[in-house]
Amino acid sequence: MKKWIHICAIALFFMPIASAQTILMSETFNYNTGDLITQSGGLWVAHSGQGLNTVNVLADQLAFTGYGLSGSKSVTFLSASGSTREDVHRSFATATTGSVYAAAMVNVATAATTTDYVLHMGSSAEGTPLSTTFLCRMHLKDEGGVLKLGVSKGSSDTAVYPATTYAYNETNLVVLKYTFVDGTVNDTCSLFVFKPGETIPNIEPTTPTAVNGASTTADGANIRHIAIRQGSNTNSGKIGGIRISTAWSDLVATTSDRDELPEGYALGSAYPNPFNPSTTFELTLPFAQQVRVSVYNILGQEVRLLHNGTLSAGTTPFKLNAAGLPSGLYFYRVQGATFAQTKVATLLK
To answer: What would the DSSP string read from start to end of 79-98?
Structure first.
């Protein structure tokens, strides 16, 4: 009886919490305070100004009531006029149809009177880092001592700023929306901004805060990156809790996206199963990233660590050698920054 209690308990521990097929990435910046964001195990990569005026992890937590990642740690964006600075990006599962939403909490301390952008999406060939195709940009500027937030689709477009103004040193929730439309320059980019105390609706508002509709910027072949850009002007502030999704409803969801593999990932079944003394399984990743692959017994004790580090994109085989372990159920688990999954293999001696 005790054995089955242990089995049920460990199975519940590893059970996926909720389906998250529409969530492409969630970033809470849960790294060591003071570290460079590029020390995140390969998740964030510098694509400009590497090592100069770096993006650092802060102890400060940003909060926005109703947002699924409220309470996340934050990172700096701090620019010095006329100097080179580091811009960083993180990749996620590729989207080529529909809409992609990028939500983040943004707290701006200072802004220049000249427009600049600090958060944007990006496109690149599958398996390659972000280079120059920066799309759906969130802009900011100071106008008469108050903050204004705007949006542009790309480099060929002028930023669109609504009349709404915002206060400095307050945390707003911003949502960038990139929508794929047939054609070569027809994709659109919208910006939604919610002030402190405003409610995030469960259904997407009919009217965005700002839209860059009539664009001359070429459409992206895909959307597969989110980037923090430090800009060319003397802007400063914090960004926290970034969530990328293909569904608006995920912005208010508090369920974890770390217990079911998103599109592009695959954890294979062990073969042979049952096995003695070894079995193999495969893990497929859409892009290179930090991954931990471990094996647990029915008590939840880790009995094997098969990998802990960066894995390349593609399919990697793993071999579990259970020599020295007793017969029973074993749970092999993959854990990344934005995904996790567990499967079971039976050792019979």
So the answer is: --TTS---EEEEEEEEE-SS
